[in-house]
């Protein structure tokens, strides 16, 4: 993990794919950028070390938002148990309800993620967007109401559920599509060291039928996939701001506070 470009990556010992969502320019206001050291994203934190915890404290992190679901946590508990870090709140905000973990639903999602091209990821991410409003709303209101409390957003790999929310936040801030897609694609670097382990775990899933290429597709983070998803968000929901209003129930004042809190003018 230490060979990753910094910024945006930050070495938090024991956590893969940890990076700062800030620093990106705002295309609508060239003198402004997304604030650093306010919103972080990463993979699941079960293997964090004491040094990693110290790094989190030095970053001022107050809250971990965990997007994983109950059945997912139960399945992972032997190798990736939920941990509590003293002084940092863990907020459980599952994107998917428990019933979304039926064998039929899992098979459908895996089929989308393992397909080549952009269509599969677009379908999978639309499923996330349909399920996520209660989860995303809590995190977005944190950004609106607690600008002095840096937070971490994560799922398992910190790529899909986390990546969709990161894209919504960045688009709301005024970051252009290409930059959002490039930020999403950084997970290719952030997960590189963990990729072999992830592939082996995925190959144990019967629905993959032993397809190593399918597993590799599933954990990929290609910029073109996010570009297609951003286009889908505009076509289906009218854009990020409309999604936040109509699906997450945020008001105009909430969204304006988020912008004020996460966008700044660098010195």
Molecular structure report:
With 267 residues, this protein is α/β, with parallel strands linked by helices. 48% of the residues lie in helices and 8% in strands. It has 13 helices and seven strands. It has helices at residues 50-58, 70-76, 103-114, 119-131, 133-145, 161-173, 177-185, 187-190, 195-202, 212-218, 223-237, 240-246, 252-262, and strands at 19-20, 33-34, 39-42, 63-66, 89-92, 151-154, 263-264. The strands form two sheets. A five-stranded mixed beta sheet has the order 1-3-6-4-5, with helices on one face. The protein has a two-stranded antiparallel sheet with strand order 2-7. Helix 3 crosses helix 10 (212-218), helix 4 (119-131) packs across helix 11 and helix 7 packs across helix 11 (223-237). The two termini are 30 Å apart. The model has no long low-confidence stretch (mean pLDDT 93).
Keywords:
single chain; about 270 residues; alpha/beta; 5-stranded mixed beta sheet; two-stranded antiparallel sheet; about 50% helix
Furnish the topology, listing elements before pairings.
Elements: E1 19-20, E2 33-34, E3 39-42, H1 50-58, E4 63-66, H2 70-76, E5 89-92, H3 103-114, H4 119-131, H5 133-145, E6 151-154, H6 161-173, H7 177-185, H8 187-190, H9 195-202, H10 212-218, H11 223-237, H12 240-246, H13 252-262, E7 263-264
Parallel strand pairs: 3-6, 4-5, 4-6
Antiparallel strand pairs: 1-3, 2-7
Helix pairs in contact: 3-4, 3-10, 4-11, 5-13, 6-7, 7-11, 11-12
Sheet with the most strands: spatial strand order: 1-3-6-4-5
In helices, the fraction of residues equals: 40-55%
> How would you characterize the largest beta sheet?
5 strands, mixed
The global form is globular
Structural class: alpha/beta
> Total number of helical segments?
13
Order of helices and strands: EEEHEHEHHHEHHHHHHHHE
Query: How many beta-strand segments?
Result: 7
Q: How far apart are the termini?
A: 30 Å
Average pLDDT over all residues: 93
Calculate Rg over CA atoms.
17 Å
Low-confidence stretches: none
